[in-house]
Amino acid sequence: MPAIGGTSVADLSGQGPGGDRPEVDRVDAELVVVGCGPAGGTAAREAARAGVATIVLERDPVVGAKRVCAAGLRPGFVSDFDVPRSIVHCDPGTITLSTETRTYAFGVGPSQTTTREELDGTIAALAVTEGAEIRTHALFRALRRERDAVVVEYADLATRERKEVRARSVFIAAGASAQVDAVDPAFAYPPWRANLLTCIQHRVFLERPADAAVYDTLEMHYYRSPRSGETIVAWVFPKRDHLSIGLGLGPKVNAAELRAELSWFLERVRERLFPATAYTLRDEGSLLYGGAPRPRIARAGVMVGGTAAGLVDATTGEGIHEAAYSGRFAAAAAAAVRRGRAQDAAPLYERAAQRMFYGRLRHRHHLMTFLERRPARFDVLFRQLEAAPRFADLLQHDRNDFTPLQWLYLYLQAARFSIAAASA
Predict the structure, then answer these.
(1) What percent of the chain has pLDDT over 90?
(2) How far is CA 139 from CA 18, 54, 98, 148, in A?
(3) Which helix (H) or strand (E) holds 378?
């Protein structure tokens, strides 16, 4: 896993001695990936495996550092993406959805938990094994198009140099804070900022393990904050040596308010799960996304994936599955260009990602908005899911997997929910 000592970006001006621009270090590649999370790492690994010359630009000194994420993986993720089983911490077979009134339990497969440093770092190491080059301390700054190529400009934070790399295709997967609107006006999406969530998470290291049932359960909580009045989405996910306990709020939240909210939630969890056990905390915070996908995610050799594309389930905050698949689609599109089967990877990528995800993710965003207007609707939905296990199971799958009979069943369940929720 690449790791280099850190350098501050505070004084990086893009100028050399005497105010002149420094000489540009420029190399060529077939695919440049910006960001080495599940989307970028998967894209790099699968593109390099297909023979595509790939360079990854990662701003952090260590791949997987500074990621706030419950790191829950869908059932089958490890086998779907050929990731070593060793990264899995727990295999929870149950997920609970809790409101202010009660808790609902469902079977989930089982799913898997890990940490983002292990997931991202492992996929990155596999990408290097396949032949991809990963440059850490590489801060993406801008891109421009030149004839049939895209030139990516970045700052090398270790050497304080401005550099460029020229590629046929570029895949931007730098998370919720990626400034993709500035990259290309075609990617502009005015509601984006309103749908950003400020998230904070504790890693809770217990002096002795909690009850065994804790490590077999993923917890999601939906409640209205007694302080701000906002709807909170919170989680408790078990790991091998700690519990990930966190929550998300709207973007206009100061640090003190966010910490007070998490402290209140942590105390409720502690009373239930580890009331007499001492613990230590490690805090993490960042922006996540909770809206609908960007309408446009590819144009003229440039593709946007993962959370930067808004490929996140607004009801749960899940995005690792979608991110990794977007990386897979980007790699396949870049490989098609290499083999002469396409002139531009962008339309191939956009069609694949939209076909697989957009119907479900847009529906989940509308559903979450509908639920938040009247929090009692959460109970209506969760009661229905608990009473209809088949309904709960189908909602864990992508829409393009469904048969006509499954679609009919889902429409009937949706109609039933709409009628019940109208009076909630």
Answers:
(1) 64
(2) 24, 17, 40, 24
(3) helix 376-387
- The class (CATH top level) of 90-110+193-289 is alpha beta
Instruction: Check residues 423 and 155 and name the one with the higher pLDDT.
Output: 155
pLDDT single digits (tens) 120-137: 999 999 999 999 999 999
- Compute CA distances 289 → 178, 199, 265, whole Å: 11, 10, 21
Class in CATH terms, 17-66+116-192+291-360: alpha beta
Residue-wise pLDDT for 362-383, tens only, equals: 999 999 999 988 989 999 999 9
Q: What angle do CA 88, 89, 92 make, to 5 degrees?
A: 95
Nearest-CA neighbor of 57 among 31, 22, 33, 74? 33
Domain residue spans of the chain: 17-66+116-192+291-360, 90-110+193-289, 374-422
Through-space distance between the first and last CA atoms of the chain, rounded to whole angstroms: 51
- 8 burial level (CB within 10 Å; 0-12, 13-18, 19+): exposed
Distance CA 346, CA 337 (A): 10
